[in-house]
Amino acid sequence: MNSFFKNIKGKCLVAAAACLMTASFAQAQNYKIAFIARAQADSFAAWLANGIEEEVAKYPDLSVDIMDSQADDMKENAFIENAIANNYDLIIVQPNNGEAQRPYIENVVKAGIPVIITNPRVKGIEGASTVDADPYEQAAVNARLALEQVPQNANAVVLLGPAGNMHADMRHESWKKEFFDKRPDVKIVGEQIAHWNKDEAMRYMEDWVQANDKIDVIVAMNDNMCAGALEVVKGNPKFANILSYGVDGTAEAVLLIKDGKMTATSLQNAYDLAAKNISVAHDILTGKAKQVDTDIDCPLITKDNVDQYIEIHKKAGAIQ
Amino acid sequence: MTPMLRKSLDVWHVIKSRYSIYFVLVVMFCMCALLNENFLSPRNLANISAQISVTTILAFGETLLIIGGMLDLSCGSVLAFAGLMSVYFFKLTGSLPLAFSIGLCFGMLWNLLNGILVRYFKAPPFIATLAILAMARGSALLFTKGRNIYQIGDFVWFGQGSIGFVPVPVIFMVLIAVITWYILHHTTFGRSLYAVGGNEEAARASGINVGRIQIGAYLINGAFVGLAGLLLMSRVNAGLPNAGIGYEFEALTAAIIGGTSFSGGIGTAGGTLAGAFIVGFLNNIMNLTGVDSYLQQVIKGAIIALAVIYDIRAKTKRSQKGLGGVEHQGETKTSA
Questions:
Q1: If you classify domain A136-266 with CATH, what class do you get?
Q2: Is the peptide bond before B167 cis (omega within 30 degrees of 0)?
Q3: Does the interface ipTM go beyond 0.95?
């Protein structure tokens, strides 16, 4: 009988210890973050999603679920609604179309869930944090360099991003204000929307090269399109001195700059953006901050400093 | 009306109905030549041919499928996956023939799935290929984690090389045009394809193995898509997991403008080639003359609609006059 009670007592002690341990584990919070990506098929968005995943792995108290909106407003809005319903601790939204997501992001704030808007930001939502790069400045650093480099009476071709996309529009506006308005001698002989795509940019450039004997400068709103245009004039002595400017600082662009084929780009570093997003998220979740608006830098990359950016891509495995 | 005049008019109607799309092509060619002096330069014509090569090769695959009463919405995504695999294996081994074969194999593999879904699970081609569209694109993104593959070395030969003054993609495009034409008009498989697309039950009753024809059509389409994928990747000098989005619609546009009927049983390789060139000329001339981006889309839509209306009217007139019976096999359905 005695041994029976001793046995029961022992089991009770073990059970109590197990309960205490469970409780203490429960106290070590694990915060669930939803990252609602614009489109995994967009190479920059995919780069950012990979960066977010890698950054979250550095925080033992964070976990992340990544959702692909496939560049579709309806899908993105549904993901936001689902994330509210699933009680995520924090939601990071990379809008496909800022205004289309605005009411849904406002609903996140109303539900009392912290939200970060990134790449691009949607302005004026009280209570929402924003982490972004400044698209105007990204283009402006290139445009200011072009002011010095582009010869008098030059012919320029311009490759634009999708109409209505905030980054595409702001970069275009920046080039207009910072370069074309100040250089009326420069003639735009071709300007088309190539939707950030390399193959579309190639098609346009092939036609422009036929229509114009002289093209002195390629102005592209991203590196992909710039690389596409350069692919067309590669090895053509008539365009050996062509100047070309992009934005993003992709692996391909830095290699082209290193080879002397591309003039400059500005870095929109997805790793920096991911690191800043997750650090802000962690600060908000642990109560160190309530609402944050911040930008990452957009350094200009030219032949003089390209090596350090090649190293960044090498570390990330994008360049072998 | 004298019998002589009537006979001449009938002959004119036959010529007009059979070759209406080529007539549209020639008119467009002449108009483009008048609008811009650079249009006729050999370099520009070579550029146009190279630019349309990828979507035209896809369009030949679509033509075969549509004639057989099927469809492929997955070609843009499968193109990206097959092209990526081709680039990846080239980077691994440095072998162009292996990279070429890998591209074709993966194109065929995905299309075997399309064929199985359509044939054995009776899934409508629209739904089956829509499912494969998502799977192939997702696989391409998973495989690369959404990153582009750069530094592809000699792989660029497929898309940027030339033999003599003819770009390699154009040679492939012509080769595929000839293969498609041969399949459709000189093989039992081609004749069976028209029969299956025209009336599947009648084809089955006449002893045609419908399943074999459907799977075969998807496999040929797969080889074409794989080829288009490796050509595109090498043309852009990179492995792009997001390449080819929306290409299925460009391919369908070329096939439909070229007279391929969505109701099945009607279509020709020559018509599809003409359709692809009509779209190519249009894009090219608008860029050469500096037409605004937004306006380009409006004009493109309007001209495509006009070309199709003209073609349909010409065929309807022929049909009303009972002249369909003299048409070649690809158009027998209108006289049925």
A1: alpha beta
A2: no
A3: no
